[in-house]
Amino acid sequence: MNENKDRPAILGGRAIRPQGPPDWPQHLPEVAERIQEALRDGSWGKYHGPHVAELAGLLAADHDCEHVVLCASGTAAIELALRGVGVGDGDEVLLSAYDFKANFQDVLVLGAMPVLVDVSSGTWLLDPASLEAAVGPRTRAIVVSHLHGAIANLPRVVELARARGLAVIEDAAQMPGARVYGRMAGMWGDAGVLSFGGSKLVSAGRGGAVLTARADVAQRIKLFTQRGNDAYPLSELQAAAVIPQWKRLAVANERRARSANLLIKELRPFAGLQPPADGMADSLPAYYKLGFLYDAREFAGLPRDGFAAALRAEGIAFDPGFRALHKTHSSRRFRAVGDLPHATRADEAVLTLHHPVLSEADADVQEIVAAVEKVSRHAEEIGAQFAASAISLSPQVGDSRT
Ligand SMILES: *Cc1c(COP(=O)(O)O)cnc(C)c1O
Fold first, then answer.
1. DSSP readout, 66-106?
2. Is the link from the previous residue into 25 a cis peptide, with omega within 30 of 0?
């Protein structure tokens, strides 16, 4: 075997993907064409043109959803959805202790109190069984996110919410176009949220959307955003970039799902990399990231962050997952239900693979497997150097933590 090639890149060997992870967004001729069109017809510089209206119509049709509000970001969309369902000063909002940081901040922005609920054991998703104990007299809404290729149990969340008179906001920023227990992702709650941020599966650099079947929710959002002008706008140029990507999303999601399934199968021998559970009825996930629960004991004690750094050095975009919200915020800012042991585990053990490589060929998936095998073979040596801080923790090739 080639000595240098078998040597982990983080220990000075040759990287398996010296070129690093694929670029994102992809260069798509149909996006370039749409933007050219918007340049030609002048709509690029207008407040109101055909693209925003067309995109809203497209999303409404594909989700079979009455009201679509396009806006500046997924973060703004969560805020608007919370306002839309009537969350305000002094209310409480339940969300997972392992979630996107901006969701927590959006609750605070409204003067409401985040109430952190644990995730299920063995995943990084909100545990519906923990919700009941979290409901108090001031609870108004539940925010629930699909994360890292795993689908949250919306049927159970909605059932509990109905029984307790709570609103549900389904955060599908990482799951556009996915099938969630028989419905389009975003269509389970009182409002659903999409993101068109720069790293997301459908990207305009920035942008987001709120989907809702409730006229009163849409009306409340309209009253808040329309001030003679739209205060949270998505521009014509952004909509022009999104439309062709949305039209090919189903095909792109299928391609990524095929790669993800192949990778999960090939990595099965590694007990220290636990993929999301599958087998949810009538569901088809979308993969913005592919998450794993990492167990250092299966890699000679190599800590998760060392494993991720070693993979990035190979040109593969593995990163630690989110920081859990109770680990990074003052306890004065939230109420917690219990000790959140599983969210603490997720904070320490989640690894994510960024999605662009999943849009490539099967050979690219095999490179990921080869990189994991290589790092695993040298896990002890990497761990020793890691512990001695001989290896810099700074991002290597292809850092993609967002
Ligand atoms: C990216 C993301 C958001 C916010 O989207 P932005 O458009 O980046 O503001 C919200 N929730 C989740 C789960 C996300 O991954």
1. SEEEEESBHHHHHHHHHHHTT--TT-EEEEESSS-HHHHHH
2. yes
Match 């990921």 to its residue by tokens: 368
Q: Is the pLDDT of residue 173 over 50?
A: yes
Instruction: Please give the biggest Cα pair distance in the chain.
Output: 69
Mutate to test the pocket of ligand 1, among 101, 174, 202 (most ligand atoms within 8 A of CB): 174
Average pLDDT, integer, range 132-154:
97
- State the average pLDDT for the chain: 95
* Identity at 364, one-letter amino acid code: D
User: Tell me: the pLDDT tens digits for 31-83?
Assistant: 999 999 999 999 999 999 999 999 999 999 999 999 999 999 999 999 999 99
β-sheet bridge partners, residue 226? 230
176 lines ligand 1 (CB under 6 A): no
**CA dist 332 to 92, 98, 108, 300, 342, Å?**
14, 18, 12, 39, 21
Question: Which among 328, 333, 351 is positioned nearest to 147, based on CA atoms?
Answer: 351
Check pLDDT > 90 for residue 251: yes
What does pTM read for this prediction?
Answer: 0.95
Instruction: Using the mean position of ligand 1's atoms as its centre, give its distance from the Cα of residue 100 in Å.
Output: 7
Label residue 209 exposed, middle or buried (CB < 10 Å: 0-12, 13-18, 19+): buried
Of 71, 75, 79, 232, which is best to mutate to test ligand 1, by the most ligand atoms within 8 angstroms of its C-beta? 75
User: Which tokens sit at 101?
Assistant: 């940081």
The whole-angstrom distance between residue 173's C-alpha and the CA centroid of its chain comes to 6
Query: In this structure, are residues 325 and 334 in contact, taking their beta carbons and an 8 Å threshold?
Result: yes
